[in-house]
């Protein structure tokens, strides 16, 4: 599939009339000469939104089975791109091929997960409260509820997951599953990768004869296209992963509309690790090695990267710090996703280094390229963090701070003062359970996922996953962007009172034509047969 650099507007490929862009190889900082991409003009963005609006009624009325087939066709198409996709993503992102192969597996797995969610049917949450005609003093009508699609969704591709959080990533898969047309704004950092995947989706939509506006992909750089998309009246929800400033700007744009809409923005998180005294005494060196591995993984460019670790001061903490520093010192520097993200990383390191009473423990192997990130491990004290809260701002990359506390009470106080997080980790043994219980009570108010004796990088795609959390980790703590319940962001409930069968959606028809699980007068009920 030769790349053209054109925008995907429904069934068409159209050259943008905006500024020219070339993809950049972050490892060499050289432009990739072909193709030339152009930013979308306001007209093209409008066309994509209008088409999505026109497609909505038809798409939301398709059977769940048909949308499942769409998701599977997209998954097959992505696999069918073979090495072409991996090599393009490698040259645009600097991410190693093995990592991208794993990410492709995750992307395809997500699409197939949502296909199975659609077939199983619980996502519609079909609920029946039977009529009670003889109830006194007033009879109860027949009441039925199910979830319906929200409307066209704009998805912002994330720089740090060119496949799994981008054009056919979790936001797109869950929105299409819900029956929402999707307009993706390609991330500037992987334009060709976006086009390859976008063309696969376009073909799958055509093969399945779904409405033209089911999917579009537009290119922009410099906020205009993103602002226009979020402000367009046809758009009913937004999925975003990126910087806190970008997420907040989109939230403001969405709130300023005549009709405000939800923005599901995943922004920043330092993912604290609480190393409790029993675990510190029993496994300081092992945990140190695991921590350094998690910190350096993927040049630290995971939203779940552990950026903060707390433990009580003492000789065992010194053992931990020495071992973690030694492990990090062995780690090679790695190419970051873009020159801008690398520059932001250097600025973040300078900000940490400028704080009083904050010492560098160790740095990784020196960089051998201009955009390579060298791992950095710092240490400071609880008292110093309390006085210098800038130390707790996310530094996107392989940098972390060990915070030494005088007591577990200080660790608890730290937990109470935390901002919202995607994850919080406890390293513990049996003897730590009492303090762990207090920590869990606090941390479940602060984070979307709590984990014990592991590290937060590595987000399983499954039914029980929550990849979310209170602000600023995300803009809406009631939802997840990973796992099957991510579909709920793009649905809303409708109650049908006394509607005859002929007017009800299939999920609520009396004879259960979709053969799905339903709740009948308070009882979860399997389909017959
Ligand atoms: P970004 O700057 O937030 O950009 C992400 C997307 O949002 C781009 O498509 C961008 O479009 C759009 N956008 C940003 N600000 C906008 C605005 N004011 N109005 C309209 N659209 C806007 O994120 P990034 O480029 O991926 O990386 C920058 C920094 O974000 C990183 O250094 C890191 O700190 C953070 N980041 C965090 C995570 C995480 O998971 N925590 C992941 C990725 C990045 P334009 O290109 O058109 O501006």
From TrEMBL:
<dbReference type="InterPro" id="IPR016161">
    <property type="entry name" value="Ald_DH/histidinol_DH"/>
</dbReference>
<dbReference type="InterPro" id="IPR050740">
    <property type="entry name" value="Aldehyde_DH_Superfamily"/>
</dbReference>
<protein>
    <submittedName>
        <fullName>2,5-dioxovalerate dehydrogenase</fullName>
    </submittedName>
</protein>
<dbReference type="InterPro" id="IPR015590">
    <property type="entry name" value="Aldehyde_DH_dom"/>
</dbReference>
<dbReference type="InterPro" id="IPR016162">
    <property type="entry name" value="Ald_DH_N"/>
</dbReference>
<feature type="domain" description="Aldehyde dehydrogenase">
    <location>
        <begin position="17"/>
        <end position="461"/>
    </location>
</feature>
<dbReference type="Pfam" id="PF00171">
    <property type="entry name" value="Aldedh"/>
</dbReference>
<dbReference type="InterPro" id="IPR016163">
    <property type="entry name" value="Ald_DH_C"/>
</dbReference>
<dbReference type="GO" id="GO:0016620">
    <property type="term" value="F:oxidoreductase activity, acting on the aldehyde or oxo group of donors, NAD or NADP as acceptor"/>
</dbReference>
<dbReference type="InterPro" id="IPR044151">
    <property type="entry name" value="ALDH_KGSADH"/>
</dbReference>
<keyword id="KW-0560">Oxidoreductase</keyword>
């Amino acid at each position: 599939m030769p790349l053209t650099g054109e925008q995907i507007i429904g069934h068409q490929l159209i050259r943008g009339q905006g500024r020219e862009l070339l993809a950049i190889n972050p490892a060499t900082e050289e432009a990739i000469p072909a193709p030339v991409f152009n930013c979308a003009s306001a007209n093209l963005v409008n066309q994509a939104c209008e088409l999505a609006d026109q497609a909505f009624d038809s798409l939301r009325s398709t059977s769940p089975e048909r949308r499942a087939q769409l998701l599977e066709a997209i998954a097959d198409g992505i696999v069918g791109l073979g090495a072409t996709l991996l090599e393009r993503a490698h040259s645009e992102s600097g991410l190693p091929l093995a990592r991208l192969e794993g990410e492709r597996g995750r992307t395809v797995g997500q699409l197939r997960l949502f296909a199975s969610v659609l077939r199983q049917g619980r996502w519609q949450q079909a609920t029946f409260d039977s009529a009670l005609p003889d109830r006194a003093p007033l009879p109860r009508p027949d009441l039925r509820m199910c979830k319906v699609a929200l409307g066209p969704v704009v998805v912002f591709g994330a720089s740090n997951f060119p496949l799994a959080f981008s054009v056919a990533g979790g936001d797109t898969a869950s929105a299409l599953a819900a029956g929402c047309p999707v307009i993706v704004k390609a991330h500037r950092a992987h334009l060709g990768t976006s086009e390859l995947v976008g063309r696969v989706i376009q073909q799958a939509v055509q093969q399945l004869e779904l409405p033209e506006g089911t999917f579009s992909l537009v290119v922009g750089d410099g906020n205009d296209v993103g602002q226009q998309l979020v402000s367009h009246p046809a758009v009913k929800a937004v999925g975003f992963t990126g910087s806190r400033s970008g997420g907040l700007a989109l939230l403001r744009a969405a709130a300023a509309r005549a009709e405000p809409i939800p923005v599901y923005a995943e922004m920043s998180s330092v993912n604290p690790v609480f190393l409790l005294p029993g675990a510190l005494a029993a496994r300081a060196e092992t945990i140190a090695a695991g921590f350094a591995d998690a910190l350096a993984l993927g040049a630290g460019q995971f939203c779940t990267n552990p950026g903060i670790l707390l433990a009580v001061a003492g000789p065992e903490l010194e053992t931990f710090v020495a071992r973690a520093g030694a492990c990090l010192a062995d780690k090679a520097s790695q190419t970051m996703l873009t020159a801008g993200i690398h520059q932001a990383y250097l600025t973040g390191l300078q900000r940490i280094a400028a704080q009083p009473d904050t010492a560098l423990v160790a740095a990784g192997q020196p960089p051998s390229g201009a955009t390579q990130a060298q791992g950095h491990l710092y240490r400071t004290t609880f008292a110093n963090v309390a006085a210098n809260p800038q130390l707790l701002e996310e530094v996107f990359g392989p940098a972390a701070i060990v915070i030494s506390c005088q007591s577990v009470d200080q660790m608890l106080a730290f937990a109470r003062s935390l901002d919202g997080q995607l994850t919080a980790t406890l390293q513990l043994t049996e003897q730590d359970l009492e303090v762990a219980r207090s920590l869990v009570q606090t941390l479940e108010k602060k984070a979307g996922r709590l984990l014990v004796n592991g590290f937060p990088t590595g987000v399983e795609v499954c039914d029980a996953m929550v990849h979310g959390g209170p602000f600023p980790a995300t803009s809406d703590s009631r939802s997840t962007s990973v796992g099957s319940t991510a579909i709920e962001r793009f649905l809303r409930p409708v109650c049908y009172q006394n509607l005859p069968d002929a007017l009800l959606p299939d999920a609520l028809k009396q004879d259960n034509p979709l053969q799905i699980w339903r709740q009948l007068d308070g009882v979860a009920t399997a389909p017959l047969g």
